Amino acid sequence: MSKKSMKNVLKKGYTLTRKETLNKTKYIEITKDSNKTPKKVIYYMHGGAYILGLTNTYHSFSYPLCDIRDDIKVVLLDYSVAPEHKYPTQINEAMDLWDELTKEYSPNDIVVGGDSSGGNLSIALIHKIKKERGTAPRGGFFLSPWTDMTCSGKSYYDNYSKDVQFGEPNKTLTEEKTKIIFNSEIFCFTGDAEKTDPYVSPLFGDFTTFPKSLFIVGSDEVLLDDTLNIVNKIKENKENEVELLNKEGMFHTYPLMSIMPEAREACKKIREFIANCF
């Protein structure tokens, strides 16, 4: 990553602060200069296959979220990256920051979110919070979450020729290519962990109960089934509230591309979802 992509992107009317927990977990807080004490929190985890750090793309993504209400703040986890730091480093850091936040805020005042590997981490965090703390955040929104390290989704094959980021135009995903991908650096964060561990592949977790949630994915992604399979599991309990936006012709984490009308539409839905949670 370039040094430029790591610099703070500051915007008039907002404050961005870099912080650490007592356990040295790094994070960023973004608030609106409203003179109101934050009472609600959006706790977001960035994507990048666990090998890319927190870029300033997420600063720009976060500022509009602060406009949902005057007493809200966005917290961006700046987790340690692979291959230097493998599982369970990232989930432990995510839990450490959750514990830091819940010293001041009720879980019911926190919405978690994430894209791609950050979607993986945020859903895994919900599993861990439920199991170890007996609670859950008020809601969660997930953009193209990477949820299945076993790559069992049929969409890997169906969408390989359509995926502009991870596929090849007019090519077929063969067994040989699958093995190459499966053993590539993309999966290095898992280390020696079982790929079916719910904290590694949250698809294999318990969705009997799950917070109110919004999933956004593109129809042309190889990772499409990583979203659809989780949504189907959540829907098995009709008391769970889950909404899916599967946007035709869109690609991986497209809501981050703010210049596109489809991205702006998705971000509007995200803001409405968060507002309805709070």
Automatic annotation (TrEMBL):
<dbReference type="InterPro" id="IPR013094">
    <property type="entry name" value="AB_hydrolase_3"/>
</dbReference>
<dbReference type="Pfam" id="PF07859">
    <property type="entry name" value="Abhydrolase_3"/>
</dbReference>
<dbReference type="InterPro" id="IPR029058">
    <property type="entry name" value="AB_hydrolase_fold"/>
</dbReference>
<dbReference type="InterPro" id="IPR050300">
    <property type="entry name" value="GDXG_lipolytic_enzyme"/>
</dbReference>
<protein>
    <submittedName>
        <fullName>Alpha/beta-hydrolase</fullName>
    </submittedName>
</protein>
<dbReference type="GO" id="GO:0016787">
    <property type="term" value="F:hydrolase activity"/>
</dbReference>
<feature type="domain" description="Alpha/beta hydrolase fold-3">
    <location>
        <begin position="43"/>
        <end position="254"/>
    </location>
</feature>
<keyword id="KW-0378">Hydrolase</keyword>
